[in-house]
Specification:
Blueprint (H helix, E strand, L loop, with lengths): L2 H32 L17 H17 L1 H18 L6 H31 L3 H15 L8
């Protein structure tokens, strides 16, 4: 390799190392100062007040309910996609858009009704204390929250 080739290699390695050091330094700063933000408040789940076994059974029952109506859920998603496509067209067909949104809404209501029915069936098998815990979880989930600090 010639002297000019070595110079180019050294200059290239210096430039590469400069960017590498800057990336490591930036990552360290982000790790030290950027990751200390408070985690966003999560929504409480209605069943998290229940004892471990019942909580797992509730989650399993709700998952089964959603799995049973998966095709209806997919219909709702497809109707929303169709509505979005209709909104993006240059000439808006309002009646077709209303129809797509109506199909999506009805399918979503059907999914929710099936899930709620499974939850009612599950709650019927709980003791009074466990039902009260479940009710407390529902109230906590629906209670208004203060706006998140920025």
């Amino acid at each position: 390799m010639t002297e000019q080739g070595y110079r180019r290699l050294i200059i290239g390695l210096l430039a590469f190392n400069t960017f590498l050091i800057a990336a490591i330094f930036g990552g360290a700063l982000f790790y030290l100062y950027g990751g200390s933000r408070q985690a966003p408040a999560r929504l409480p789940l209605a069943g998290e007040q229940l004892p471990g076994k019942q909580r797992g059974e509730l989650q399993k029952a709700l998952a089964e309910a959603r799995r049973d109506v998966r095709s209806v859920s997919l219909e709702a998603r497809q109707a929303r996609v169709e509505a979005a496509a209709l909104m993006g067209k240059p000439d808006l067909d309002a009646s077709a858009l209303r129809d797509a949104l109506k199909r999506a809404r009805e399918a979503e209501f059907a999914v929710r009704a099936a899930t709620e029915e499974r939850a009612v069936s599950f709650a019927a098998g709980l003791s009074l204390d466990e039902r009260r815990r479940l009710a407390d979880g529902l109230v906590q989930r629906e209670a208004p929250r203060p706006p998140a600090a920025k």
